[in-house]
Amino acid sequence: MRIVITNYIEVTMNAELIIGTAFLFVGHFTYKQVYVKTKRLSIQRHLFALQCSLRDELVQQEENLEEENIKTFLMVDNGLNRTYQTLSSSMRARHSLKASHSDSNRKSHFLKRLEQTRSPQLTSIIQKADELLRQEFNVDTPFTRIVVDSNEY
């Protein structure tokens, strides 16, 4: 009788340990998912605010800007759209945001266009977007990479 009770207690304790461990894993996974989603939504809100700020700046300066400068503004706006969509999708390819050597010419071309624009507001928006995405993806200048990839203008 004593052996049966002892075996029953051991089996019950093992089951409780397994269930407890499973509960901890599920709780940890759920917490991480909620944290990632909350962080992603926060970054999306900041990107949307940057995009609104960029568009307001473009509307204010539209009459004074040359066509090339307007194209640079639109290029950055398109990059913000692509960034927002990248964060909206559940698939985030970190490797697609890492800069490669073949992109250096396009990146330098974009940075040259940015310098020609001479808009501190535009530069500030790009720096803020870079910082937001650096926090999310942990890579260097990801926004510049996205803008360079979306070079339609």
Proportion of helical residues: over 70%
- Unreliable stretches (pLDDT < 50, length at least 5) are none
Distance between the termini: 84 Å
Characterize the overall form. elongated
Rg computed from alpha carbons, rounded to a whole number of angstroms:
25 Å
User: How many distinct helices?
Assistant: 6
- Strand content range: under 5%
What number is the mean pLDDT?
74
Order of helices and strands: HHHHHH
Structural class: mainly alpha
Number of beta strands: 0
What would the keywords be for this entry?
153 residues; mainly alpha; 6 helices
Walk me through the topology.
Elements: H1 2-61, H2 67-88, H3 94-97, H4 104-117, H5 120-137, H6 142-149
Helix pairs in contact: 1-2, 1-5, 2-6, 4-6
Q: What do these coordinates show?
A:
By secondary structure, the protein is mainly alpha-helical. The chain has one domain. Helices cover 82% and strands 0% of the residues. It has six helices and no strands. α1 (2-61) runs antiparallel to α2. It is elongated, with a radius of gyration of 25 Å. Keywords: Membrane, Plasmid, Transmembrane, Transmembrane helix. The chain crosses the membrane at residues 12-31.
